[in-house]
Amino acid sequence: MRKFFLVIFFCSIGLLVNLYAQESSQVRIAVNRDFSSVQLKIRGLYEIEDTQAERILLRGKDLNSAVAIGEGGIFVGGKFFPIKRLRIRTDANLSSLALDNRYFRGDIEFILQTSGKLLAVNHLGLEDYIKGILYHEVSHYWPFEALKAQAVVSRSYAVYQVNYPVNKDYDLTADIYSQVYGGKTSERYRTNKAVGETRGQVLDFNGQGFPTYYHACCGGHTEDASVLWSIDIAPLKGVVCNYCTNSPHYYWQASFSLRKIREKLLDYGIKTGPIESMAILDKTASSRAANLRITSEGNPVDISAKNLRAALGPNYIKSLHLTVEVVGKDAVFEGVGWGHGVGMCQWGAYFQAKAGFDYHKILQYYYPGAEITNLK
Question: What CA–CA distance (Å, rounded) separates 128 from 257?
């Protein structure tokens, strides 16, 4: 379930992508970053390929070994390969592959980075990737139409990222900063069924793909994406949502000592003196805090609300739909909702599905003007 603040920036509306501009059936997921060693376990046939030279280095059967950094290369199965990129391929039907006991479909590429650490990238089909997401983004016990809505949204987001022109060795990460992905280990019957029944379906706007953001609970109104990022399109302008009121994450409260807030802000690069008061300066159209004023030794310091949330932690300051009051030496925050608020409200989708909405209506509600189309 989406419980966090996505820190992703888009430069302009011109960055909408043609859904059919390039092959989107394969995705590259960074499943492990900046590590020195990982345990690789393979049951069945495999081959090790030099990714850059596109040549097979070794073929074998069954492997339980560390993959580790060597001087100018990579160790696998006790053998040293003096290359910076190698790919482990297996037979999808006859073999299994795991990293630190997490099983993955597809291939794993190991890349020796300039930092001297390793990067593990899972190459796999788009539909298999979505299967590994849903369990982490919504409960597999949720109403089936909500699961199908999430499958379409997650697929659309992935396709956008695959087509987005960035020079990286991967398209998405496996954590909260993209979509939480657990590989084959995270697959469940009902979520896989939702993926299968929506196979190839994505959202577009005027024939173009767009970043289909989503979040746990909007608190009554979804946010205009242009408030947070430089993307201004009709499906992401924000809508009234009265469906998530009974979410267990609707109301929240958090408190911090003023001293701790000052320390957290300094770590984030915002310097203040001893904090005396905090107040919301202005709000967005959805009633979320836009900017705050911190008074320190009589001097005002104005900061954006999203920077304050990032500094204090998005799992504590759960949304910007909040109030703040200084009580003694503490600041008390109270609010509604969880997440950045843009796009689909997951708990809203849950209650819409409970009320009989199908996934088409759910998606039309949260992304007005967008249409479901099929990848070719």
Answer: 45
- Give the pLDDT mean for 38-58: 95
Res 13: pLDDT? 38
CA pair distance 161, 199, nearest whole angstrom: 18
User: Under 8 Å CB-to-CB from 319, ≥6 apart: which residues?
Assistant: 217, 219, 252, 288, 335, 336, 337, 338, 339, 340, 341
Mean pLDDT score across all residues of the chain: 92
> In the structure encoding, which two tokens stand for residue 29, read together?
């997921």
- Is 349 within 8 Å of 215 (Cβ atoms)? no
Burial 13-28 (b: 16+ CB within 10 A, else e): eebbbebeeeebeebb
Q: Residue 128 belongs to what H/E stretch?
A: helix 126-137
Segment 331-350, tens digit of pLDDT: 999 999 999 999 999 999 99
Of residues 122, 175, 124, 131, the one with CA closest to residue 151: 131
Angle value at C-alpha 77, between 73 and 79, nearest 5 degrees: 45
What is the per-residue pLDDT across 351-366, written as a single tens digit (0 to 9) for each?
999 999 999 999 999 9
Question: Tell me: the pLDDT tens digits for 210-221?
Answer: 999 999 999 999
**H/E run at residue 262:** helix 258-267
Q: How is 315-374 classified by DSSP, letter by letter?
A: TTS--SSEEEEEETTEEEEEEE-BS--BSEEHHHHHHHHHTT--HHHHHHHHSTT-EEEE
Calculate the alpha carbon distances from 40 to 76, 99, 328 in Å. Answer: 9, 5, 54
- Distance (Å, rounded) from C-alpha 233 to C-alpha 13? 7
CA 82 to chain centre: 34
Q: pLDDT tens digits for 274-317? A: 999 999 999 999 999 999 999 998 899 999 999 999 999 999 99
The pLDDT score that the predictor gives to residue 92 is 79
How far apart (Å, rounded) are the C-alpha atoms in residues 262 and 312? 10
> What one-character-per-residue DSSP string does 5-19 give?
--------GGG-EET
In angstroms, rounded to a whole number, what is the distance separating the alpha carbons of residues 212 and 2? 13
